[in-house]
Write a structure and sequence with these properties.
Blueprint: E1 27-33, E2 36-42, H1 54-62, E3 72-76, H2 82-90, E4 95-100, H3 103-112, E5 119-123, E6 133-138, H4 146-157, E7 160-171, H5 176-185, E8 190-196, E9 199-205
Length: about 210
Amino acid sequence: MATDAPDTPPTGSQYFAREPDVASARATVPLVLPDLTTELVTDRGVFAHDRLDVGTRLLLIDGPPLRPASTRLVDLGCGYGPIAVALAHRAPTAQVWAVDVNRRAVELARENLRPYPNATALLADELPSDLVVDEVWSNPPIRIGKRALHELLVSWHARLEPGGRMVLVVQKHLGADSLHRWCESQGWPSRRHRARATFRILEIDAVPEATP
């Protein structure tokens, strides 16, 4: 049975903590995509530290192609940066931001993005308040709780340029379909790009500008 994200986040050490309280144990994981094969540095205390998450891999393989006009891209909740690395590789003339609240994750993402001069990893509170972007890609942190997740998506949807979009991968049993309905209830043009296994890939467009 499908279940929504919790209304409040669980307690204890979590990958969305600013300062993980688990001991560091650095390792590497392979990132293998049709157009890119590399090794990424990872560590305990970040999301999916011991493997490339299945949802992230599906997003990077089955997600829609980047729009040619998109020059400002974001990996939201970047972890150690696999989405940001793929975006920077696929769009070398675009600016890519990898964003997370977890300091250890951002440090790892910076390391993994060193080969890409068009990419930057930042803590969420380091972002310029006036930053606007063309595309936000994310395996969003569902476990922060429904209210916090909605607030996060609202804040980033507001940063989209007209014609921009968010591309999310969400597990069905963690409320992918109800999240889709919630996005539509916000007046955001939304569609399910693809369904595979137990995941949904959602495309959420910026609200079109009102015509005079």
